[in-house]
Amino acid sequence: MNRLATESSPYLRQHADNPVDWYPWGPEAFERARAEDKPLLISVGYSACHWCHVMERESFSDPAVAEVMNRHFVNVKVDREERPDVDSFTMSACQMFTGGGGWPTTVFLTPDGRPFWAGTYFPPVRRGGMPAFPEVLDAVARAWDERRGEISEIARRVTSAIAELGSIGRVSKLPPPAEARSNLLASLSRRFDTRWGGFSTAPKFPQAPLLDFLERLSRRGGPEACSAADMLEHTLRMMATGGIFDHVGGGYHRYSTDRRWIVPHFEKMLTDQAQAVSLHLRRWQSTGDDTHLWVCEAIVGYVLRDMVVADGGIASSQDADSEGVEGLYYTWTPREVAQAVSGEFDHREVCAYWGIEEPGHLDGRSVLHRADRSFGPLPTDMAAALQRLRVARSSRTPPARDDKVVLEWNARWVGALAEAALVTGRDDWRRGAESTARFLRRRLWDAQVGWLRCWHPAGGNAPRAFAVDHAAVADAFCRMYELTGEGEWLEHASETASTMLARFRRSDGGLAQTDPRPGEPQLDVADFQDSAAPSTYSTATLALTRLWGLTGEERFRDAAEEILHCLGRVIEKIPETSPQALLALEMLEGDLRQVVIVGDRPDLLRTAARALDQWTVIAWGDRLDSPLWRGRADGHAHVCRNFVCTTPLSAPEELAEALQSGV
Question: Which of the two ends of the chain, N or C, has the fewest CB atoms closer than 10 A to its terminal CB?
Fold first, then answer.
């Protein structure tokens, strides 16, 4: 067993019995590299990554390959979910060297932490135009010995270029939100797949931050709202009826390998489930279509049934592979369907409805999806047949879970589930949100260190939390206050946001992704682009804006505005990279709506909850030291804009009418 056996990450422990002399990322590896004048080989991946497992089996388990690695390099294994700062840094280097990226990421660093060459997956022998990994190792080792000056210059230029990525340019005046909305809608309209939805061909990711922007825009009214609603609804319907959605067990897979959302990459990530819950919940609010609520219920059911680790903590992901085969657990043959439904249903009709056919989509097997792509309640017979398939699938070996509890991802889940519980009034969802939120306080908060990035039931070393963790926790705890009315959650949110600003604030007013860590290179890569999930900058601006809206503390508003000034040029020129920060800008520029409910009025709370949208915060329960509460009499509600409030409203109908006026 090597050094990785004591780490908290299951992904790192999966490499603990490799013959490679692995180090975790940290001072010890860099000290050895400097002492022996060796380059570092950094391999970045994650537990649910199919090709990461392939490279581990093919190369890292091979004693001959390991001997070359150990002789020439100091080898470092990184879980990208544990170290998002290292992942951003190495991925930036990989993209500069190759024009693309992916996992596993393979990057070579000088002993002082500067990248001088990079790639992704390498096979053990030449294959498909890719060089063999042993050839790569020999070439890099030779270059290190014979062309040190050239390597030093390459490393200097690449490190400088990565640093410039974080210098996005502060602006003195924030761009008008309406103009940014129009620019973003025009960009999405040009990229929109009118037949299958989404904004690319293949591979096709849900891109939840962009879909959330369309949902917001659809509520504003006018021609732009209609266009946004059409793109959003079509995309969500194609996703929810395609194979990217697990119709048998619930939850979304990571992305689709094809344009039609049928054949996914089968891993499931917690952060994707959190965002999908919010998207379908809000679409249900907007349309009244109960199928969107059914999708929400299926996602929440999957997470609370299959992903809870201990005492409320949620596992970070579920693997794409089972029994060494990608997608085996999720795919079907006509014969397997016939065996599952025999005696009750015509298996040919079941196969036709769910798109199970010969020769299949993947190695002779089919991905279950609604073949006619109809979005609505399942026919009674097909719902019953699906239950038979569910029973049959339960006898298969399920994909492994990564039981590591990631603070950021669990916080995003808490925020989504708390919002869903508030809107729907479901007590079981409320209990789920509270359970996970209290787990985070109990297991990932250390009075000496502060927040930790992750936790695992088996223990092990865990890094300190990053800026995005603090931002996600602050936002989640705001939503826990809105759900429960308990002031302690807002206190925790304020403390966490204050720590974030103290530890990660840059001189330009933005946020560093990480803080200095002794013995490690300083990786100051600004995380400002929304992609599959909101960026650090977006998450922070939204959390700070919500905190200001609930507490009235101007320091939170000022900090959010400072970050937005750092994003101003990006919002103006390439708004598709920052749709969530645009929401914060809209709120700061006048769209923030506050509802305060004073006294025990569950009827008013239900009315406010049903109308909850992305611009609205709800204060109720414990009285706070906030302008929202001063001089308020019990038994009434007030609707406010930037702390300027309506006269007291005592009837639910009055409150509903005031809220209906919209933004």
Answer: N
CB 628 within 8 A of CB 640: yes
Q: Which two tokens mark 659?
A: 């809220």
pTM for this predicted structure: 0.95
Residue with tokens 């063999």: 132
Specify the amino acid at residue 653.
E
Read off the amino acid at residue 263: V
Q: How many CB atoms lie within 10 A of CB 339?
A: 12
d(CA 359, CA 523): 48
Residue 332 dihedral angles phi and psi, to the nearest 5°: -140, 155
Q: How far apart are CA 496 and CA 195, in angstroms?
A: 44
Contact 355, 370 (CB under 8 A): yes
Phi (first) and psi of residue 635, to 5 degrees = 90, 10
Residue 455, SS3 per DSSP = strand
Q: Three-class SS of residue 647?
A: coil
Q: What is the pLDDT of residues 178-225, one digit of tens each?
A: 999 999 999 999 999 999 999 999 999 999 999 999 999 999 988 999
Given a cut of 90, is residue 6 above it in pLDDT? no
Q: Are 332 and 324 in contact (CB under 8 A)?
A: no
* Contacts with 110 (C-beta within 8 Å, 6 or more apart), sequence order: 39, 40, 116, 151, 152, 155
370: exposed, middle or buried (Cβ count in 10 Å: 0-12, 13-18, 19+): buried
Q: What is the number of other CB atoms lying within 10 angstroms of the CB of residue 459?
A: 10
Query: Per-residue pLDDT averaged across 586-599, rounded?
Result: 95
Note the helical H segments in 288-346: 290-306, 334-341
Q: DSSP character for 461?
A: B
- Can you tell me the distance from the alpha carbon of 337 to that of 204, in angstroms, rounded to the nearest whole number? 28
Residue 395 has pLDDT above 50, yes or no: yes
Rg (alpha carbons) of the chain, rounded to whole number: 25
Under a CB-based contact definition with an 8 Å cutoff, are residues 527 and 550 in contact?
no
| DSSP string for 520-583 | S----------SSS--HHHHHHHHHHHHHHHH--HHHHHHHHHHHHHHHHHHHH-GGG-HHHHH
Is there a contact between 265 and 205 (Cβ–Cβ < 8 Å)?
no
| Residue 191 phi, psi dihedral angles, 5° rounding | -90, -10
Helix axes 270-287, 290-306, angle to 10 degrees: 160
Torsion angle of alpha carbons 624, 629, 633, 635, nearest 10°?
-70
Query: Torsions phi, psi of 606, nearest 5?
Result: -60, -40
Alpha helices in 48-101 (DSSP H): 50-55, 63-72, 84-98
Give me 662's structure tokens. Answer: 């919209």
| For the chain, the helix, strand and coil percentages under 3-state DSSP, each to the nearest 5 | 50, 15, 35
Sign of the alpha-carbon torsion through 91, 124, 58, 138: negative
Residue pair 35/81 in contact by the 8 Å Cβ criterion: no
